[in-house]
Amino acid sequence: MTKKKMLSFKVDEEVYHRLKQYAFEQHQSMSSIITRWIMEAPVKNEDDYKQSELPAKEK
């Protein structure tokens, strides 16, 4: 079983209702919809998320 982390964030009411409707139509939870979306999104380096902090922006 994978360890899960709780997230809390705000979205516009319109976004909330659209996500809820989409999840309903797909027979999935809103959490699983967000999880599937981010896991399928391309990233530059799979290992970057393991670093302790984001790199400083270059000027």
Notes on the protein architecture:
- Helix content is 42%, strand content 0%.
- With 59 residues, the protein is mainly α.
- It is extended, with a radius of gyration of 15 Å.
- 0% of the residues are buried.
- The mean pLDDT is 88.
Topology:
Elements: H1 13-26, H2 30-40
Could you give a short description of this structure?
Helix content is 42%, strand content 0%. The chain has helices at residues 13-26, 30-40.
What is the ordering of alpha helices and beta strands?
A: HH
What summary fits the major beta sheet?
none
As a percent range, the share of helical residues equals: 40-55%
> Which residues sit in consecutive blocks of at least 5 with pLDDT less than 50?
none
Strand content: under 5%
Shape: extended
Keywords:
59 residues, mainly alpha, 42% helix, Ribbon_hlx_hlx
